[in-house]
Structures are given as C-alpha cells and as structure tokens.
Amino acid sequence: MQNDIIKEYLSRGTYIFPPGPSLKLAVDVVAFAYRQTPKWNPTNVCSYHLQEAGATPVQELAFALATAIAILDGVKASGQVPDGEFAQVVGRISFFVNAGIRLVTEICKMRAFAELWDELCRNRWGIADEKLRRFRYGVQVNSLGLTEQQPENNVYRILLEMLAVTLSKKARARAVQLPAWNEALGLPRPWDQQWSLRLQQIVAYETDLLEFGDIFDGSTVIAAKVAELKAAACEELARIEAMGGAVAAVEQSYMKRKLVESNSRRLAAIEAGEQKVVGVNCFTESAASPLVAGADGGFLSPDSEAERAQIESLRAWRAARDGDGAARALAGLKAAAGENRNIMEPSIACAHAGVTTGEWAQVLREIHGEYRAPTGVGRAAAVGSGTGLAPVRAAVERVSARLGRRIKMLVGKPGLDGHSNGAEQIAVRARDAGFEVVYEGIRLTPAQIANTALEEGVHVVGLSILSGSHVALVGEVVARLRALDLGELPVVVGGIIPPEDAAKLAEAGVARVYTPKDYDLNAIMADIVEVVDRSCPEAA
Known about the structure:
By secondary structure, this protein is an alpha/beta fold.
C-alpha cells in the first residue's frame, strides 16, 4: 500500500492533514493489516518519488530509512501491536525505490539499502530472524531523466536503469515496473506499455541472469562504493534523528529544502554541460523520429469528456445508496478519529456503506484540519548556473528600474497535481535571477491564483501543470484574471504539453509555453523578462 506520507510532503504532494495525524493513519493501517491481512504489505516506503524530486543516492537512502523508522517507531509507540508480534510487522514492511541512469552507483545504492535495512532491523528493533530483516522492494525506474528530445533514446535509458535493480541478486527487486519511452511527451498508449513489458520479459526469460548467484560479490570496487554510500547515509540519518526524526524534518523544511537544492544542482549541471544528456545538451543532431510521426503524435491524449462522465457517475452513486447508512458510517468514523482510536474498521464500514473518498477525507479534515507543507524554496541555497545568469540579472535590473519596482512573478500550481519539482525550480531560479517571487505551493484553485495575482500586484503569472489538465485549468485562470480586470497580465505555462495544446493555450492568450525540451532555465528566465518588458510599457 503506497501510504508513505512523508514522501507526500517532500515530493508527491498528495497529503491533506498535518504530519502527525497523517502518520497515525499509516500506523493504523499497519496495526490492523498485520493481523487481518498478514500476507499483504501494509505500507510501502517510497524513495522513488524522492529521486524524482532530485534526491542524491545518499538522500534517497537516508530519507527513506528515516521514514521507515518513523512508521515503525510509531507502530511500537501506539501500543496496538504486542512486543512479541512486532517482528512480524517489521517483516511486512516493503519499499518502492527508484533507479537512475548512473548504473554502477545505482547497483551500489541498492546493495547499501539491503545492508542498512538489515543492520537497522537488528540494532534498532532487535529482529533476530534473518528472513524478517530482508529488504523487500519494488521499483519503477527513473522518469525524471526521460527526454522530449529524441524520445526513442529513452528506451535505452529504461533498460539500463532496470539492470541496476536486477543484476545484483543480493539486492534484486521483487517487482519491476517501467515507464514508457514517450512519457516526456504525454500519456503512453497500450502499445507503448507493452513495449516496456516486453523489455522485462526478454531480460527475465531470454537471458541467463537468473541462473547465477550475485555477480558482484568479491568486487572491491563495488564494496568500496557501497561502504561510502552507507557511511554518508548514516551521517544524514543521524542528522535527521537529531532533529527529532522524519516528521520534525518535514515540519522544519529540512528534507524538502535539501531536495530542492539537489535538484537545482542537477539542472545547473545539465545547463552547463557538465552532466551530459544525449539529445539534449550533446549529440542534438537527429533525423526525424518515425515514432512521433503519426496523427496522435506518439502518445495518448486524455478524453476531454472523462471528467464530466466521472462527476455524473459520482452523483448517480450517491443518489442510489442508502443515505442514512452512509451518514451513520461517517459518524462512526468521526467518533473513532476524535477519540484517537484505530480508524480502519470504521473506514471499512464507510466503504460498505458507499461513502466516497471525498466524504471520508472531509470528516478527517474536521478532526485534524488541513496542512500546507513548507515548499523548501525560500530557504534553498543558491546553486548558481555559471555565467549564464549574469545577463539575466542585468535584464531584470534594467526592466525593474523602468517599472519603478522589482519584477514580481507569481508561480502557481493549479489543480490536484502534486508534482511540484518544475514549479520549485522556476521559483528558485527566478529568485536567484533577481525576481521577487510569490510561490505558495501546490493544489491552488484558479480563483486563488487569480486573487493572489491581484493582491500581490505581480507582473507575470507562471503556471506549472503536469496532470494533463492544462487546457482546462489555464483557461479558467485566464478567465478569472480577466474578470478581475487583469486581462493584460501575461501568463506563461510549463508542463508536458503537446504542440496542439500549446496552440490552444496561445489562442487563449498565454504568452509562452515551456515543455521538457526547454531545459535551460536561464533562457526561460530571460524570455520571461522579455515578456514582462513588452507587456508592461508603463512604469508601475
């Protein structure tokens, strides 16, 4: 079950409540499931999303282990599991990891994960049974490194990343899922998904990989790198423990800030050409790809009618259920949450009564309130990006002087999309370029974004959308800006946006559209300065 709440505050964004009550929900699931569904993994500690947010291998190791500690220590402290049965709980904890393109380092990271988890289970919780200390994990290989340019190259990246979690028998994934080659363009079609599946099947059934023991045992190079990663991860883990653990590190914005900084360094290295990405900053010449030559552009476009159909289905569901029964179930849930009892059985009763996820969550909102996690942007250290930032800063100063105040940019994340990496990096780079930046985090409504633009008196609105709903959300933001007499305020948009949708956004009045191929953040900043300069002819 993917209920690792810590990673939601750090990278995925699908949280509602404060960290403490949210961790209690995970603890309740674990305490209930180890008895009622003993062969099910009641929690899945997710380092996958951390690497997608820019985590280094050391951060991925330390932050994931800190999360596992928070969950298991929480289970132990809750008193819901007898001491004699706690080892069984530890044995059901699983992980969901990421594998990047640096093949040898990723192999060593997974071996370090397995060794560190074994040591942690023995030393912290006294787990004697080796089987219960095994590092059990599934993996999705890296999506962050998939490129819009020359997307056919992504197939090779995906294969190499899969090898990182399958070559070493001692640290081999129990389950592998692969992205499709075209996910930097849009949603994969069934054929694209099949291609990724066939890749796994060829490795599993045609090669001799599974016929041998661990082929890295005895390698001094591998052993040295594993030791290096373990030592650095233990130092980072000790730092988090000294703060009070993972929850405290979330609340103090420590882990989030570190991820933002790491991702900034990664992007700056790509911009400077220090980190090579084939087809992006080197070997950019290319023949036209036949994979994207079809009428669909090489990806699946979402059905614009799907949202309306889902809303109608939800209304019909509520109308057909026993309303009184649903109300009683919700009342039982509220009582359990208010009394700090385990909420699993009341939640199951809600499901049987036809309660919707939104209704379930609303009851818990009334008990725990809502939470907005630190963005990590304000305190993130400036990374810099070589000499390329100097002319952008000069342009910002020139235009700001003409306007009579510093260029002010609102960076907004409308809708339910919680993937905030792009918005964070734009906000940090704009800050470092000299902009005054307003960034309030994820899950903002179009109304909130438009009202903030009015209240803050910004010169430009930047919207980041990775959910595929860019046309609808941007259209609503633009409409609300016009209703507030801000129709001349320039709007720029970033995301995985197909060319035909980019044309629609331009027709709706969007000044610029940026997609994954626009990796040079300094160039984006310079472009936005030019947009502001042209759109604000009079001094403000």
